[in-house]
Design brief:
Blueprint (H helix, E strand, L loop, with lengths): L2 H4 L7 E2 L4 H11 L3 E6 L2 E7 H8 L18 E2 L10 H11 L3 E6 L2 E7 H11 L7 E8 L4 H10 L5 E8 L4 E8 L4 H10 L3 E4 L8
Parallel strand pairs: 1-2
Antiparallel strand pairs: 2-3, 3-4, 5-6, 7-9, 7-10, 8-9
Length: 209
């Protein structure tokens, strides 16, 4: 999944001379929290609802009049994304920079914008939770062929694997989280254990006392 698949287009933007009050009203009207700021056709900054609140708050050391331009409070030279960037790369950039949005530039022009919520929606789709499915987590030895053996187990039972996520578990193993086309995961987990897989979730059903 790429940035172009999830970005909001066209991006709602304001000019650098837009007043703080006008920017706030635009955010309220459009139900958004981030506004790219342009000077002509050039992106020069980003202003957020938090920027506006802090700038005009009576608790600020030097509160600004609502009639001042957004250029006085915007973040200049903002981090941007390209439409062909991978969604996970955009998420990593936003996490590393601790920012809530990325304006998207195409050919130097503002083409769209993505926010943290857009990325969260994308991740939900990528993990397959937006369709009926069951979650199974397996610990696999970190060696060639193990993932193929696991997916082969489900293919042999005519079950779709909607998504696969992996992360290191130790120096010699990895955790694999799958979304499969069945909500009856406990019987599948028992079959997996019977085939020699180390199933982490769902947990093994305790024996009745």
């Amino acid at each position: 999944m790429l940035v172009r698949d999830i970005m909001r287009r066209p991006a709602i933007a304001v000019s650098s001379e837009t007043t703080l009050e006008e920017a706030y009203r635009t955010m309220q009207r459009e139900s958004i929290r981030h506004l790219p700021v342009q000077q002509g056709d050039r992106l020069v900054g980003v202003v957020t609802d938090r920027d506006l609140r802090l700038a005009t708050s009576a608790l600020s050391p030097a509160p600004l009049s609502p009639g001042r331009p957004v250029s006085e409070v915007m973040t200049r030279n903002p981090q941007t994304a390209d439409p062909e960037d991978a969604v996970e790369d955009a998420a990593r950039t936003m996490r590393r920079k601790k920012i809530g949005c990325l304006p998207v530039l195409e050919g130097g022009q503002l083409a769209g914008i993505i926010t943290g919520l857009d990325l969260l929606d994308a991740i939900l789709k990528m993990t397959g939770v937006d369709k009926p499915s069951g979650r199974i987590e397996v610990r696999l030895a970190d060696r060639p062929g193990e993932l193929a053996r696991l997916t082969g187990f489900f293919g042999g039972r005519g079950l779709d694997v909607h998504s696969i996520l992996t992360h290191p578990d130790s120096a010699t193993s990895a955790r694999v989280v799958l979304r499969v086309g069945s909500i009856e995961t406990r019987p599948l987990a028992e079959e997996l254990r019977g085939s020699g897989f180390d199933v982490v979730w769902p947990p093994e059903k305790p024996w009745p006392r």
